[in-house]
Design a protein that fits this description.
Pfam families: DUF952 (PF06108). By secondary structure, this protein is an alpha+beta fold. It is built from three helices and eight strands, in the order βαβαβαβββββ.
Length: 113
């Protein structure tokens, strides 16, 4: 299965330079990297990234993350993927821009491509 991470472009560029993604400040504060499933990612964008521009959407192969990935209850009891380790860039399937629309929502790419 594929899971997704929304991140500011600048943070992702730092990860590319370092060879791994250690998370955004909220991830570091919580002790794990927050991800969303395909069914959750648009709501995540609306709730946590409304109006933000210069974002990227990364698609991650969850099978490549092994035992450090856990599904845990979050919003309304839904299970969200959390990674208790740095994200190796080798697990990234693709990274695409996530532009903001004029109304503050985001224009998502095709998640299957």
């Amino acid at each position: 299965m594929t899971i997704y991470k929304i991140t500011p472009r600048a943070l992702w560029q730092q990860a590319e330079a370092a060879g791994e993604f250690t998370g955004a400040p909220v991830d570091e504060a919580d002790g794990f990297i927050h991800f969303s499933t395909a069914e959750q990612v648009k709501e995540t964008a609306a709730k946590h990234f409304a109006g933000q521009s210069d974002l990227l959407l990364a698609a991650i192969d969850e099978a490549a993350l092994g035992k450090d990935l856990r599904y845990e209850p979050s919003r309304g009891g839904a299970l969200f993927p959390h990674l208790y380790a740095p994200l190796p860039l080798s697990a990234v399937l693709w990274v695409k821009p996530l532009p903001a629309n004029e109304n503050g929502t985001h224009a998502f790419p095709d998640l299957d491509a």
